[in-house]
Amino acid sequence: MALLGENRYGKSRVRLVKVNRESRVHSVCEWSVNILIQGDYENCFGSGDNSEVLPTDTMKNTVYSLARESTATCIEDFGKELAAHFLSNYSQARTVSIDIKETSWDHLMLDGHLHPTTFHQQSGERQTVIVTATRGGTVSVVAGISGLVILKTSDSSFSGYIKDRFTTLRETSDRLLGTDVTASWTYDSDSLHFDRVRPQVRTALLSAFAEHKSLSVQHTLFAMAAAALDQVANILDVTLTMPNKHCLLVDLSPFGQDNPNQIFVPTDEPHGYIEATVKRDL
């Protein structure tokens, strides 16, 4: 006899662009929304009874329609609106998870002036959020950043590590430290000015990366997360994933040249992978 285990369903990668035209200076939001619903759907799986199933196409259309009516200015608040809508309107849904990724569009600067209706993308950085709401329960808001590529050219070393017969890596007191940061943090409330708190976390992470005297990626990761927890009271924890984007010093000696830490070859694979969650010590 087969028993249905944990299950959920929804719609992925519902993409939309919303233009705010309320002033002469427009603004643009580009969001990619994933919706996942959990509930009592055993009859659908077991007997093919779709009477309690909300089609995922309807979920897609709901995103577009609510975006038209919504006054949310950040992905955290729009995620809460979507989760509340599905819980309020569909009794079969027990838990709703809304995952949104935002692509940033910045105003183009022409001759030192902001162009009011023309935009460009400066990086691959994305703003992220996962809102999870349970019927009759709490709302969890976990925000974050992905694709934040950063590099420092000083104050980074790596030495004192285990060495065995497979070790070829040389110790260094002055190396490039580059990484592609994915960060997430849990807010202590679902009723915050998220658009004010989010940049505070980002600034704290980047300031720590720039100013920290790194002895390893792990050492810097912890310093960045600790700085965010210290400087932003409204977050409970920080999870950071920081792959080590290696830049290897090129040996120019065959050409009769020295290389005083100036010429490197960047490599993507293989790379070190460091991930950790740092929590507030309550």
Give structural notes.
The chain is an alpha+beta fold. 24% of the residues lie in helices and 36% in strands. It is built from 5 helices and 12 strands. Strands 1-2-3-6-7-8-9-12 form an 8-stranded antiparallel sheet, with helices on one face. Strands 4-5 form a two-stranded antiparallel sheet. A hairpin with a 4-residue loop joins strand 6 and strand 7. Helix 4 runs antiparallel to helix 5. The radius of gyration is 23 Å and the shape is globular. The termini are far apart. The mean pLDDT is 96.
User: What structural class do helix, strand and pairing data support?
Assistant: alpha+beta
Uncertain stretches of 5 or more adjacent residues: none
What is the number of helical segments per DSSP (H or I, 4+ residues)? 5
Shape: globular
- Mean pLDDT across all residues, rounded? 96
What's the β-strand tally?
A: 12
Which series of helices and strands comes N to C?
EEHHHEEEEEEHHEEEE
Q: What is the percent of helical residues?
A: 10-25%
Question: Order of strands side by side in the largest beta sheet?
Answer: 1-2-3-6-7-8-9-12
- Largest sheet, if any? 8 strands, antiparallel
Per DSSP, what share of the residues sits in E-state strands of 2 or more residues? 35-45%
Radius of gyration: 23 Å
Q: Ends: how far apart?
A: 47 Å
Task: Provide key terms for this protein.
282 residues, alpha+beta, eight-stranded antiparallel sheet, 5 helices
In short:
The protein has helices at residues 42-47, 56-69, 75-89, 194-211, 217-231; strands at 9-20, 27-39, 93-103, 106-110, 113-120, 126-134, 139-152, 177-187, 235-241, 247-249, 264-266, 275-279. With 282 residues, it is α+β, with helices and mostly antiparallel strands. The strands form three sheets. It has an eight-stranded antiparallel β-sheet with strand order 1-2-3-6-7-8-9-12, covered by helices on one side.
